[in-house]
Amino acid sequence: WLLFALLVGPNLLLFGTFTFWPLFYNAYLSLTQWDMLSPIKVWVGLSNYTTSLADPQFHRILLNTLYFTVGSVLLTSLLGLIGALLLNQPLRGREAARTIIFSPVVLSGAAISIVWIYIYDPRYGLIDAMLSWVGLNSPHWLTSPAWAMPAVILVYTWRNVGYSVVIFLAGLQGIPRELYEAAHVDGAGAWSRFWHITLPGLSPMMFFLVLTSTLTSFQAFDIIKTMTDGGPVNATNTLVYYLYEQGFITFNAGKSGMAAVLLFVFMLVFTVLQMRYTERRVHYG
Q1: In this predicted model, what pLDDT tens digit does every residue of 260-281 receive, in sequence order?
Q2: Is 209 helix (H, G, I), strand (E, B) or coil?
Q3: String of DSSP letters for 124-158
Q4: DSSP label at 176?
Q5: Could you tell me which residues are beta bridge partners of residue 42?
Q6: Which tens digits make up the pLDDT trace of 90-104?
Q7: Using N-to-C axis directions, what is the helix angle for 109-119 and 148-173, rounded to 10°?
Q8: End-to-end Cα spacing for the chain
Q9: What angle in degrees, to the nearest 10, is found between the helix axes of 56-87 and 94-102?
């Protein structure tokens, strides 16, 4: 027990100091009213929760969070699977294509966002130039409430799809070739082989990607901050951006803590549901 305490104790101390204590203190802050400057915190109980949950603007922020998360996870997973299937074929330049597709993953989200702001420019941007070839005008991507969220989701997907491609590629290369050969001998077509061999073989990777991508999307901040600042008219304001806005712009620690608690609860519930129900359909070899 002494050896156990010596080996595990430092890690537990670090976890307690930098993870668990901030978590519990944040829950306490969500029950107070504090401007982060005065030494006195006013206890308000559940007032931050009740007022926010009754606010239509906060309802829109929750819907934006769901919209962004579902859209980005679906696009990233689908495009990652398609890219992996293509790059798993014996094509010329396959290694170079894998490197190019993965490269945005290691780049700064803020730097990517600045480049895409110029691409989205409705007067001089690359997309406007491409649409002009077919006689179309580019929409105001980042200043239109209808187009701002799809534009942000597209950039977020472009940045992260390379990671999904690499994970799916690893899964594809782990499926035994004998299964495909046996299915081909039995007369199974390409679609049948994909549905009955490829998808079940990729289910562990898909489960991992959906879980991690969803948790990451809930916390996406840098692209939204750089490209739209949560606008226009709260069209891209998500829960994590609302947390930042309340804490570091309006200095309302109570509502910022409330948003953090809700974000933690949503992520915890999603993870538990995934582990409890979705993992049952995963085929581990």
Answers
A1: 999 999 999 999 988 887 766 7
A2: helix
A3: TSHHHHHHHTTT-PPP-TTT-TTTHHHHHHHHHHH
A4: -
A5: 33
A6: 888 888 888 899 999
A7: 120
A8: 38
A9: 170
